């Protein structure tokens, strides 16, 4: 058995027992005995006086205990660093070392620090235990967690540290195994690999340090390294800085855990919503105000695993224009959701979340003009969405096109959203106005979950992904529709899905002619739609988001009298036969889809 030597000053080491200065580094784990964080090497006395004297080890433990408690009291500074994301590690390591910190690290982090020329003590040297179980146990040790969790203002905490020869940590820098990236990678991951990527020791250290943030600074984000170093250079009296780091640390762990639990629920193979779940949200931007100027507001991006590469407005790139407002986000979302559904080149114009103009044409310029024409009054100040690139010609048209209302006023829009812009197209649109928001969005993923808040709770449902291709348009009366009428009905059906209930859309030749939305009764929506369609209603298709409760002297008869050629509705009313008889009488085809598209 070997005896150990210690003093506080590493330059002046001597054996406690024999006072010999014949001190050597000990390479054998078995005999390692940590002395103090200022002398983090493993030392032993090779004097013949000590050699083989078992009692010396005990004696030395007492000496070291004294040494350690005095080191803590004399403000010896230790930082614990364990990072998967090793970005800016050299900046951190050099910065802390320059400020007089002793660095303690897990294996990979220690190697990276050493490679960056920073001296470091390995956690296993401190704990006297090797990292084991394939890294499942590295830092889960009282010498680590005691040093993080002990309150410096409680004597019995400090005494306990001294008794067990534990040094304190003033700074803990940890980030976690990249579970999120691994399980969401497109190449996929096995269940076993997923499990191995669940970090255990990291969250334990983060939580411990965040709990004891009064004494320990906890950093989980490389973006905070500079602020940490600045803080350490100052008087360190800003408690709010510590609290903010602690908040961020718990948030980091909470998001991480929500990803793990979301993934595990999927691994159970159950096709139902989980009994409870957490949605991780990340602030994208503070908004000037909410729906109205007296309401505070912000926009958050959903970080759920199911939202990875889900496309949509939240991840759209803004190329130009005034900052997006709360209502802009809602409207842009509605426009983008609607236009993304069409296969052919299409333009959708939205006002207050309702499409007021929709047209599909091989020539997108034509589609754009038709979409404006559907309701030029509403289109003014609206959101224009395209499902194809905005090139130079289209951009010029968006810039120059004059309102069909007076033939003079140039059309004005809040937002243009498209999947792509040519360089020239973008330049031209930028020139239209300083404020015009230009968004580049990627297509929405199908099969998502939709959440909506009500007082005290959230409603959760699958997104409404059905398209006309998934639906059978069944002729239920004696009038067989023409091929073009069927296509018009499908087009109107796709439009009506995006209109607020009660929703009626009249369309012909891949162009919306009129729509009625949000009325508390269907007849009123129908009348609004017919008024907008005007004479063009003749031979057009009409789609209703839900069945008609009454036919005679009601919406169905009014539609038939107006001259529509075909009506598409879900069916399912107890008075379906009235609708069938009514359509027979007026020579209008009636199609039942058996699918409802309420939008509340
Ligand atoms: N098990 C443990 O005791 C443990 N302690 C730290 N870690 C993690 O290990 C990672 C760093 O490892 P390395 O320094 O070996 O590259 C960090 O992301 C940290 O969160 C652990 N790993 C997983 O649980």
TrEMBL record:
It catalyses: (6R)-10-formyltetrahydrofolate + 5-amino-1-(5-phospho-beta-D-ribosyl)imidazole-4-carboxamide = 5-formamido-1-(5-phospho-D-ribosyl)imidazole-4-carboxamide + (6S)-5,6,7,8-tetrahydrofolate; IMP + H2O = 5-formamido-1-(5-phospho-D-ribosyl)imidazole-4-carboxamide. Keywords: Hydrolase, Multifunctional enzyme, Purine biosynthesis, Transferase. One of its GO terms (biological process) is 'de novo' IMP biosynthetic process. GO terms for molecular function: IMP cyclohydrolase activity; phosphoribosylaminoimidazolecarboxamide formyltransferase activity. Residues 67-220 form the MGS-like domain. One of its GO terms (cellular component) is cytosol. Pathway: Purine metabolism; IMP biosynthesis via de novo pathway; IMP from 5-formamido-1-(5-phospho-D-ribosyl)imidazole-4-carboxamide: step 1/1; Purine metabolism; IMP biosynthesis via de novo pathway; 5-formamido-1-(5-phospho-D-ribosyl)imidazole-4-carboxamide from 5-amino-1-(5-phospho-D-ribosyl)imidazole-4-carboxamide (10-formyl THF route): step 1/1. Belongs to the PurH family. This is Bifunctional purine biosynthesis protein purh. It comes from Thalictrum thalictroides (Rue-anemone).
